[in-house]
Structure formats: structure tokens, C-alpha cells
What does this fold into?
Amino acid sequence: MKPAVKVTITGAAGHIGYALVFRIASGAMFGQEQPVILRLLEIPQSMSALSGVRMELEDCAFPLLHDIVTTDDPTIGFRGTNYAILVGAKPRSKGMERKDLITENAKIFATQGRAINDFAARDVRVVVVGNPANTNALIAAANAPDLDRNQFTAMTRLDHNRALGQLANKTNTLVSDISRMTIWGNHSLTQYPHINHCQVNGQPVFDQVSHDWAIDHFIPRIQRRGAEIIEARGLSSAASAADAVVDHVHDWALGTKDDDWVSMSVHSDGSYGIDEGVVFSYPVTCKDGQYEIVQGLELDDLSVSRLKASEDELRSERAIIAELLP
Amino acid sequence: MKPAVKVTITGAAGHIGYALVFRIASGAMFGQEQPVILRLLEIPQSMSALSGVRMELEDCAFPLLHDIVTTDDPTIGFRGTNYAILVGAKPRSKGMERKDLITENAKIFATQGRAINDFAARDVRVVVVGNPANTNALIAAANAPDLDRNQFTAMTRLDHNRALGQLANKTNTLVSDISRMTIWGNHSLTQYPHINHCQVNGQPVFDQVSHDWAIDHFIPRIQRRGAEIIEARGLSSAASAADAVVDHVHDWALGTKDDDWVSMSVHSDGSYGIDEGVVFSYPVTCKDGQYEIVQGLELDDLSVSRLKASEDELRSERAIIAELLP
It folds into this structure.
């Protein structure tokens, strides 16, 4: 049997963490032949809850789960880890300014970036889920000078999967009939869910839906889907966010499907004219554990302006936390 | 592609339901080649939360999830269903007598048994998770005269998996190294977790652990594991219960491993001297969608008395709800 992969999850006792760790242990992330070791990191006040999560993991008798480590010490949590999934983040409290939220989280992710730099496996792959995810990924990477910044990503896969689900509903097809969906930009309200290159059963999407539907209904619905879930559930998305983490890491590690791509927030390399200093959601293909930004997609003027707006937002977030960038 | 399997889950917006439905939709229960249709049943006051669960399921873009039905009407919820997973139950409220809890739930499961009888697929397989699970399964089956009572089971797989986890911890092995674990009796404090026939890496278990450990530590810990989880988490087991449902149905549908068995609560056929009128947890093997109680296991006097105690409890539960048995 293969050696176990080590996976660190921060905020492991939170709602998303609780939905996530069992799926990883069940083999959903790396397949049924790949054992895993879970390294679960929490803040001190959540360690009792985390001990309960650990017990429940034991109680599942997962054949692929070879060990569980629980800790509130990042230097232990990230030790030797192959995948770092950064879920835990400070939520917005009542009356908190966006600026303060960004700064508070920047400190957390700077610390975690340094711990990953010092203790993780040299090929560690990082995905940031905690918001503001893109800027948190930027900060973590900037604080890990011994690692390649391309090892740090942020998650836009939940938006991507939401977009697939809505387009499938609209076209009365299955999500597996749809390819080439893209989420561009920041994981925020400025994100740009973009169906123009989509195919439905191999045919152009606009054979089945109108541009007006995309602009007036589809895009705002994806942008505001998180609020819609909170409205219905009284709680924010947890299981669907966890599922998106599974998909993000699964595809990064094991590759994307032929003739298709997925959306990942990665360090811009200047593709599509985006500032190289931000973490931006792009269409990417993955193979052999590496991702590559899809090149050469045509963008109309509207799309260019939407990408620009999201880039501007990312620049403003970066300006807020500039002093935490070494 | 195969036709979709229809799976009904009651209490789908509750803690266990929320942990369960995403795993089923991901393919964990029936494998990666088997599409599923989820029929999610809730009580009227949970329909808003259930609409949020439905949205999150859409947001996962599960390729195998071909449709979702949400309803508070059992005659719709069970229509044509192939698997009915009865999770929802009335919890014990403060000051409630055990007798009243059993009676209140008996009414719910009698109603559901009738709806399953009238509307489910003729080959429907039922697993009761909501407590008191064994007696609820008895009542549901008794109210479904057109179906075989052997289509109705209750879940002891969580206890079984907990037992595997604890024995693996104690022997410093992996759960996959252990076989032939058994939970006998009622899914309650009288259950009898029994390691005497276990093998660890193919060797007798008592080469590695003592009888005293089994009696003084192992058995009470499994019996009281639920309380231990509540103590740590502040919430009862959810993800591990959901995982046990996945395992129970998976093995029933797709078969148990060679030279091994699992624990399921099924209608007694008199095996091991147990009253034929109760639903009792036995070691079973499954093949081609059918289960068979493992025969011929030797039981020492202690074990016989433990089985008897659990049988007595089940008889007393049955006496409480006798008038609901047609």
C-alpha cells in the first residue's frame, strides 16, 4: 500500500471542518487506494470539540485513515504535511469594518504561512478557504519564502460548482453534461462567473440560454448564493464548501478531465492582463500535481471590465495588509 | 449508465441527515457508477432548512445526483423508493419518561411503515436510525403487511464501527486488520459488543488483549460512547452515525467482505435462541442484496446472559407499544 498522505486542516472542529474531515478520511479526496493521516489544528478554546471530532473519526473505522493528530500548535499541525487546507478564519463580528476583518485575518495567515514554510513537506500544496481567501493566500505565500508561491492557492471551486449546478438546472441537463465553466477574479461579490465558453453536451451554451439570462439572473445568483443559503438554513454553507475543497484538492493532485478545466485562485502570472501581485481565480487544467492557467480565451468588453473590477478589489485588499507582506 | 437508485432520507435537515445526504450524493453508498435520486423528507417546521440543504446539494455539482425531491408528505417522500433511511425521530425532552418516548416514536414509525407499504418500490430496503431504533423497525415492519419483514432493519453499525476503532487502538493495528466483530442485541445500553470471535491480522484476538480488558473497559466504553461524544462535542454523534448508515446500506446492497461479517439489527428468526418477535443485532453476511445471520458461533455463559438481557429489554419495549402492532 502507498505511504499515507498527510493532510492538515485548520478550523477542523468548525462547520466546514466537520463536514470535510470525514470525507477526506473516507477516501473522497485522494481515492480508495491512498491512505491518509489527518493533522487537525484548532484554536485552544475549540480543543474539546476537536477531541470529539477525533473520537467520531475513530468511530467510523475508515480503512484509509492511518493516524489522527490534534493540536492547537501550528508548528505541530503543519509538521511534514503534504496538503494544508486553511479553513479556520476570524468571522466578521457585528459592527466590524471590512478593513479590520482583512487585517485580523492577515495576521493569522501570515503566522500560518511561516509555520508552513518552516515545518511542512517541501512539496506541500496549500488551499485557503477562510475569507478573504484570495488575499489570505497571498499573505501566507509571502510569508513562506522557502516555498514556491505557486504552492499556495485559494478556493473558488464552490462558486464554480454552484455555477455548474445553476446552468444544469436552467438547461435541464446533468452537471456532467456541462464543461468549461469559469469563475474569474476574487472569491467575493466581484467574482465573475462566466459561461461564454461553456459547452452543454458539447454544444455552445448560447444555443440553450440567452446572454440576458446570464447577465441578469445567473451571475448575480452565483455571486449572492452564499447569502441565499444562509437565509434558508440559518447557517452558512458548510457541506457544499467542504465538497468544493475535496474537488479542488482532488483535481490538483489527480488531474482535471480531458477537454475541460476548473476554476482555482492562483498567483497571477500576468495572464489576461491581471496584476502579477494578486491571487486571482482563473480557469486551470491540472496534471501530475501541477496546474496551468488556460490561455487564449476570448473575452468581450464586458468581461474585461468585470475582471478589472475584481482585480481592483484585490489590489485594494492588498493595500490594506501591505505591511504584512515581507 | 445504470438507472438511478431512489433513496429516501427522513429528518434530512437534521444533524445526521445533513452529514448523510452529501455522502450518498457523492457516490459513497452505492459506488461511482450508480446514479442516485434523493427524496428528502422533513417535518413542516424544518422545510426551510431543508430547502437550504437542497441548494447546497445543487451547489456540489455531484455528477451522480440525478434529482432531488423535498417534501413533508410521507406519501410523496417514499414514492417508488428503493432505500428508506429513517433518521428522523422525536428526541427525549426534559422530564420525558422512556415509556412516553417509545410510544411517541412508535406512532411516527407506524405511519412511516404504512406509507412505505403503500408507496415504496416492492424491493425497498429500510434501515431505521432514529431511536429506539430496533423497536421502531419492528413497528414499521408490522405496519407494512404487503412487504417482507426482512426488508426492515435497524442500525447497529455505528456500535460495530466504534468497536473496531477501539480494538484497533488497543492493539495498535489498523481497523482493516480486524475481522469478525459483533454487536449483539439492542442498540441501547444493553447492547453486547463481543470480540471473542475477532481476529487481528488473522490471529485470535486474545493473543493480544485480555478477557478482563474486554469486560472491564471495552464493553462499557462502546456502550457509553455516545455519551462520551456528547461530553466532548456538546452535540451527539452526527458524521459518524451518517458514516455508519453509508456502511450499513453499502454492505447490504453490495455485499460484505469474504471471511468477515458486519452487525445489523434484523428480525430474529430464532437464531441463538432469541424471541422471533424482536429486531435484534446479529452478525450477518450480505450477498446480492440479501443478508444472512451467521450461524454456529459459540457463546459462553456470560455472552448468553448478556444476549438474554438485551432480548428482555426489547421484549419490554415491545410490550409498551403492543397496541400499535396490528
